[in-house]
Amino acid sequence: MKKIIFTLLIILTVLSCTDSEETIESKNITLNFSHTWDGVPVTNADFNTFKFTTKNGEQLKIERLRYVISDVTLETSNGELIVINAHNLVDVTNNKNLTFAPTAPILTGNYNNMSFIFGFKNEKNISAAYEDLNTAIFGVPEMLGGGYHYMQLDGKFKNESDETIGYNFHAIRAVDASGDTPTFPKDTFIKVNLGPVSISDNTTFNIEMNIAEWFKNPHTWNLNQLHQTLMPNTNAQIMMFDNGQSVFNLKSIN
Questions:
Q1: Where is the Copper-binding protein MbnP-like domain (predicted)?
Q2: So what's the pLDDT on residue 19?
C-alpha cells in the first residue's frame, strides 16, 4: 500500500511540474495590420482613385499611407509592464511591414492589457536614431523639433469648387515653432489599448485601422481649411491626436 501511495505522489509531482513549465513557456507574437474605410477593406489597390468620402463631404483619394508603431506592451495581473523595445513602419503604399513579428519572446498566460504606441514616446523620438526610418526619409526637420513622423497620409481631394487639391495629413509631435527654439505644448503620440489578451502558442493579433476616423471623431475635419502645412500647426496636430484615439481596434486573435 505504501508503495502505491509513493508512486502516486511521484506521478502527481511530475504532472505538477509539467503544468508549471507549460504556463511559463515563452512564445513569439505577431501583429497583423489591416485597414478599412468605415468597414470597407482598403489596400494599396484602392489608392489613386476617388473612392472615399469624409464625414465633412469631401471626396478624396489616398496616394500614400505609412505610419510607425512602437513599444508593444503587455500588462500582467500584478501590474508589471512587459515592453517590447522595437518599432515597425507599416507601409500600406508598398504593401510592406503589414505584419510585425517582434523577436522578443513573451511568456504564455493571461494579461490585463495589451497596448502599443502610435508614433514614439518622446524619449525615443530622437533624430537619426533609426536606420530604417532614415532610409525611408521619415524624419521631421529640426526646425519642427526633429525626431520622426508618426504618420504620413497623402493624396488629393475635391475642394468646394470641385478642384483637385493635394492634402498632406502628417502626424508628428505637436510643436510650437514660433520662437527661436521649438517647444512642445502637448504630447501627441497615442497609446492604443487593445484590452485583455491571452498568449498561447504563437498568437497572432489582427489589428484594424479605420482610416475614416482620422477625419471625423471627435473633430469633423474640413480639408478645405486643413489640408497642407499641418506639421507646424499645433492645433491641427492636437486635433489629429484627438481623432486618433478611435482609429485602431483589435479585430481578432488567432
A1: 27-226
A2: 38
